[in-house]
Design brief:
The protein has four helices and 22 strands. By secondary structure, the protein is α+β, with helices and mostly antiparallel strands.
Length: 399
Amino acid sequence: MRITGRHIAIAAGLLAIAGITAWLLIPAPVAVETAVVTKGRFVASVDEDGKTRVRQRYVVATPLAGRLSRIRFKVGDQVQVDDAVATITPSPAPLMDPRTRREVEERLGTAEANLDRAKAVVERARAQSEQANTDLTRARTLAQQGAATTQALERAELAVRLADRDLRAAEFQHHAAEHEISQMRALLARYSKEEGGQPESWNVTAPVAGVVLKVAQESETIVQPGAPLLDIGDARDLEVVVDVLSTAAVEVEPGADVTIDHWGGEGKLTGRVRRVEPAAFTKISTLGVEEQRVNVLVDILSPPERWARLGDAYQVDVQITVFARDDATIVPSGALFRHGEAWNVYVAKDGRAEVRQIELLRRSGRFAAIASGLTPGETVIAYPSDRVAPGARVAQRSR
């Protein structure tokens, strides 16, 4: 058979169609995000919100009950030691209606009459005592002369003792009557408009020098013993309180380095963990889940002039270092996935995905430290989708 140019053209067309069909059947590369494996310092931290707190806070309370005068101090005012921050006066007497007042006045009249009667009884008892002493003197003289019997002398001595007792009893009744009159007059004097003089008062003083942080009671009112009036503290002596999950608090140790961020000023502040409280407490999260939290106390190490505008109960972000390693192999945490019990990553090599088993050293937030399995400079696939498989063609997604 003779091959003509027409035959050659048809064959070439068939080959072109077959090539195009084969090319169309080849799967397109999977668009992926990639990241380069790096080497450097890796730091794992516990990241939580915290708030500042005055280290030494003093609550000034009322030592006794009474009427509290209006407190002149405001939040932010400076106070010195022993400055009078509040004044307490006796509580006003309860109101007395006219009937009760009349009864008190009648009782006062009765008490005055009892006093007059007690005076008469005292005079009578004193006269009887004097007469008994005179009779005793006479009886002793007669007994010495033999003109009186021993029984008469004994009766005279008994009469003297009885007269002395009656005199003392009458004097006691006189004192009681005077005391009752004094009580009635004092009760009426509390409601008399003519009563003068300033009432007794008690000044509540500041135990330390500092700044007023809180005024619990500003207006004049009646207070009971122990009622808080105001809080005083040194606003420059601040610490940071961070409540962390109890599972994370196990890794936090006193002396750990702390980074304080988003505190309102420029740059970051440095701090150090002073104490991890030994007792946890229950807190409801924003999702409504009960969590066991532990307070971690942090000292601010940065110069005070840098955070001079910080105050009590200000919010800050805190990063507590719990693990650090120099010259660590670092990859994004999103590149890791588990297969069975082992950790793996996809390595982008020559346009294809290669699965690689690794040994994980530590994870922290967005990054992870690798002990073995990767070399710095290799490219890994971050957040691989279900389309990524061993040997699949991959291409860097355009950004």
